Every structure is written in C-alpha cells, then in structure tokens.
C-alpha cells in the first residue's frame, strides 16, 4: 500500500494521555489525579472528553497509571448517588451525575512506566489499530466556543497524514513547547510542517509556532515511535516521532499544522489554571453575574 495516500474513513478514536504525576499541584494531587481538579465545578478532564465528543470522536482511550482510579469512576455510573438524587427528586443534579458516563465509550490502559508522551501514545497502538486518531493532552483546555479539533479532523481527512495544533507564542515562551518550522499554504489557518524541535534551547527555535496539545495522527506514528530514542528529559517524545514523519512523507504522509487563534488555558500551570477558572466562571450564566459583580468590587477595592 502506498503510505503517502490519504487514509480515508471517519476518525472516531481519541486518545487522552493522563498518566502524569501532577507534581506542580502538590499537595492537592497527592491522592487525587491532577485531571480531576475542578475548573469551576467540572473536573478538567471532562472538558477534554467533551471536546473530543464535540468533534465527533466518541471512542475515548485514556492512558492512565497508578492512583488514577477516580478518572474511571468519574466516567462510570454511580448508582448509589443516582438513587439518592432520584429519591429526592433532584433531576438537575441527577443529570449532572449521569452526564460524564453518557458522554462517550471509555477505555483505559495503563502506561506502567513513565517514559514520556511518545511512550504514552504508543500504549494506544493495539486499541487504535490502522486508522488515523486524535490525541488530546489534558493540560490544555480549549474553550468550547473555539472549535479546533473539528477543523483539524477536516484537514486530516482532506490531506491525509498527520495534523498538529499550533499557536504563536512570545519567543521567550517557546522553550516550554514543541516548536514547528512551517511553510504557508493556500489556506490562512493551515501550514505545512517541515521540521519540529521539542522544547528548543536558546537559539534553537525555528519559529514561534508552539505545539498545543491537540494532534490528529496517521497510525504510521506508532512504527516511528517504536524506533524513537529517548530525547529531551530522557523521555520518548511525540515531537521527535512527528519530526521523522515531517522529514519523510513516505512514512505516513505529510504533517500539517492548524494555527489556533482562540482561547486556550494551560491547566497544568497554577497561574493559568486560576485564570481559566475566573474566565469560565465569569462567563457562566448561573454563576457569572454575581461572580463578576464581586470580582469588580474586589479589584477596585482590594487590589
Ligand atoms: C507536551 C509536548 C510539547 C507540547 C506541549 C503542549 O509537553 O511534549 O511538544 O508543546 O505538551 O502542552 P509537556 O507540556 O507535557 O511537557
């Protein structure tokens, strides 16, 4: 089979790596997975699963590890709680409890050893098989009003190969991300990726295009990951495997980037996590009006 031809067929599988230790949020994450930290009143991970579902991906595989049982419980039924709420006639809260378990078909696999994002994605190989699939990183929260993943799926289905999400960042911030060298295409929000560097050191960044945590990947990435040596931080880096794909289209087709200009929050960073909560709370119909009024008073009187 000519690997460079687009693989057709609806993309239906999403992979969410969630095995990280969450050390930036200790002690909150000592016994609770960081993915379960609430953003307003929903755990961060639920936003990510909702985003996958909104883009048409209803089969979700989470890559977990030790101490991640609460993730499985969250997306499962809780009959005791449901029973108690139905007895009280509290339909609103009952639907909030049922929502996460009705969202998608959930699957789980454990990563075992923490060998990096590339290794986590490789753990998805038996489940994914030979179809393109999406990867969503739990630390990146994309505002539901700025659909990114659906656009990436559209570009992948047309172009084949792999598609990554890119965002322009301040040059001083690029060392925190994977960085892409790109060429323009006829579409303003789509670029061709020609090279990738994971967390470039000073003077190493080919651009200020940062990879944000959304990918639609050709399954050829699995073969490439198997051959990828540990890179930055001694870990098997997804960026390094994608670099190989970008440098040789014969392996798994081209690599494109969708340039995102919408709202993104990094819930893996404490400051950004707080900003995400404030912004999303302000915009909520139920909580927003009171919260905004309080925030205005707080800022003018106490800051
Ligand atoms: C990972 C990727 C990096 C990407 C980032 C986006 O890094 O390795 O290429 O830019 O996610 O959030 P991490 O932040 O997990 O260290």
UniProtKB/TrEMBL annotation:
Q: Which SUPFAM superfamilies match?
A: Nucleotide-diphospho-sugar transferases
In terms of InterPro entries, this protein maps to: GalU_uridylyltTrfase_bac/arc (IPR005771), NTP_transferase_dom (IPR005835), Nucleotide-diphossugar_trans (IPR029044)
> So what does this thing catalyse?
alpha-D-glucose 1-phosphate + UTP + H(+) = UDP-alpha-D-glucose + diphosphate
Pfam families, A to Z:
NTP_transferase (PF00483)
**Which EC number applies?**
2.7.7.9
GO terms in the biological process aspect are: UDP-alpha-D-glucose metabolic process
What are the protein's UniProt keywords? Nucleotidyltransferase, Transferase
Cite the GO molecular-function annotations of the record: UTP:glucose-1-phosphate uridylyltransferase activity
Query: Does the entry feature the keyword Transferase, yes or no?
Result: yes
Name of the top EC class for this enzyme? transferase
What range(s) does the Nucleotidyl transferase domain occupy?
Answer: 13-278
Q: Which domain of life is it from?
A: Bacteria
Family (UniProt): Belongs to the UDPGP type 2 family.
Q: What name appears for this protein in its UniProt entry? A: UTP--glucose-1-phosphate uridylyltransferase
Organism of origin is Streptomyces cinereoruber
Q: What is the lineage of its organism?
A: Bacteria, Bacillati, Actinomycetota, Actinomycetes, Kitasatosporales
